[in-house]
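Exercise 7 asks you to align residues with tokens for two separate proteins.
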Amino acid sequence: MVLGGGGFIGHHLVNKLKEEGYWVRAADIKKPAYEDSKADDFCLGDLSEQSFCLNVIDRDFDEVYQLAADMGGAGYIFTGENDASVMYNSASINLNVLEFCRIKNNNNIFYSSSACVYNEFNQLDPNNPNCEESSAYPANPDSEYGWEKLFSERIYLAYNRNYNMTNKVARYHNIFGPLGAWNNGKEKSPAALCRKVAQAPNGGSIEIWGDGEQTRSFLYVDECLEGTTKLLRSNLSGPYNIGSEEMISINDFVDLISDIAGKTIKKIHIDGPLGVRGRNSNNKLIKDELGWAPSQSLKIGIEKTYKWIEEKVMKGEIDIK
């Protein structure tokens, strides 16, 4: 079962599980935006509503992946305008999922947390952020989204202790790839920058929030799913980082995308929501304990993502809200 199966990562996960031969139920408030779901059963509704969630979790599944959340990119998370709904909706989903899974003897849930749980004070230096798993405490996330994720991590692990469950928790770091939001207000920086470069003429310019010296790492969706399924099928609980250690500044990221596009692009820096100054996945713990690490460079994933978004732009398509 994939909860959040209409979203970007969830849709890719459904595809992966179908390729592995599983019967898959997906559930989400919306269906996938860019292609039909391959789920054997797609339940359309709001998992924050108890009656719907109870109907979805009607049996004991071999694997449960809980990816459903009220979320988006920096333009959605860091403006403050969506804080209440982000916290209420996502917390309600997780409380419902956990309790109904317990009732139906689903003891093995994967929960997708986020790098947004990490202490803002440890991410002020763009060249030396600290995102080691233990550094999440003392807690000081940079957004209400991060606070909700941290709370939900704790309740999944509390159910492990109190109800003998084996839930798994991973902190995703900027997952990207084709078939994700690219122009609807919830897109994240890789898709947004690919779109801007695709729309700009050679020699043109694009706008970037901030000075562009803020740093991030980005993980291609296929590698995210490899780490996700490997963790769920292990005897480990986490939390673990699932991300890339290939850190890059936003300015350099634009240059990388521009090179892939074969364009010369001028960067215009403007005010906008930024999040932390620097962030990079620390993979030592998951590599040592689970034996997982990403294997491909950022460029390979961005080439695939840019091509997909460029085709959308060339066709004059409009992203789905």
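Second protein for Exercise 7:
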Amino acid sequence: MGATAQFIEFLDTTLRDGEQTSGVSFVPHEKLLIANLLLENLKIDRIEVASARVSQGEHEAVKMICEWAAPRGLLEKIEVLGFIDGKNSVDWITSAGGKVMNLLCKGSEKHCRCQLGKSLEEHLKDIKNVLDYADSKGLTVNIYLEDWSNGMVHSPEYVFRMMDALATYRVRRFMLPDTLGILNPLQVHDFIGQMTKRYPLLHFDFHAHNDYDLAVSNAIAAALAGCKGIHTTINGLGERAGNAPIASVQAILKDHFGIRTNIEETCLNEVSRVVESYSGISIPANEPIVGEHVFTQVAGIHADGDNKQNLYCNELLPERFGRKREYALGKNSGKASIRKNLEELGLNLGEEAMRKVTQRIIELGDKKEQVTAEDLPYIVSDVLKHDVKEDLVKLKSYIVNLAAGLKPMATLKIEIRGKEYEESSSGDGQYDAFVRALRKVYKVTLGRRFPMLTNYAVTIPPGGRTDAFVQTVISWNHEGKDFRTRGLDADQTEAAIKATLKMLNMIEEDYD
């Protein structure tokens, strides 16, 4: 199977099924931007963007996406879920400019009988009426066999009678969902095999759900059994436990089975982060491919191996996915890991200096403190006490105010290269007011660029005490360079200010 030249088509349903994640709702302009990233950057073959007749906002979103896609020749890649409702779904989709409808039909006898209260013959009659009307309106139709997995387990004769009736009808693709996430890979391979053997000329898609944490495995099994299309979402978003995440499915298809796709892998991380931001659903740090920690080596022996012909690397190279390998610092770090981070910063220490820095990092790790690459210059300064410049930027004093009914205010006095500056500003929060005052110093008084804050994360150790330390990690972009700084304090604003002061000293050294 590994030498196959098979091609798999991806349908991404982040904007439809992914939006059924509890608490997730994309506004129209967010849907448009995600659609743009999926089609033009990630090179997804097709995207499902909405369900018909849900709301006026959904109609506006579909219309915006279709108006964007049409002049780019991408309109046939835009799909909308429709229902057996006479003319209503067809009219809704066509009025929004859509050209492809994914028609939701009943793929199990139980759903047909209990939910619709109809026989298969009655249901088929309703389906064909919608198909005929859609054809008259110029719509391409794919059919979802909802609850197909239960249909194959409990009523396969129902599934095959339905397929026999529709196989020669005007249907582009038949989409086979494991609606309740009940199947395992062996069942998927068996059931998809039955479908492809019985209907070899038809195009089948498989749509997995992750209730048993088997969505990725089931998607792979479907591909190996002859499915031509796989449904996925960004970050595995979806109802209940979610859908199959595209990053994992793509990597396994390519690396383990030699299956071709159109996916532009270097864009996976970028799109993943945008969807994380818009959805509000955080990506687990250990999520394969896109998790924050998955390309971070912790053990010192691994860093040493990477220096010796990449002994601890596999096919999942970070550069392949638009990322880079990092080397974590802590009590398990060896000299090789620390040296890797120092090299990134342009620092080259002798053996005795390395021993002292390594020992200090181990001490910090024993206290469960997180040590980042950005902390290294400060650790080196603290340990070695020589040949290290003192802070060029010092916060002499500041005050932040918060009062009901008034915008927060901040006043600060800061020393830069021996000269003091004082500024005040209001903001949407205490830290925002502080940063706005800083920007005045740098942009107005000094006429210099001020870094852009790209991410702000706050963590509190387990226990939830009111006096617990707060760790604030801030991501910045300055002159095209991305970096992070960390602050630790019992007060969240103070922790953020400490992280910001680290950033100011870093860019001040760059300014030299």
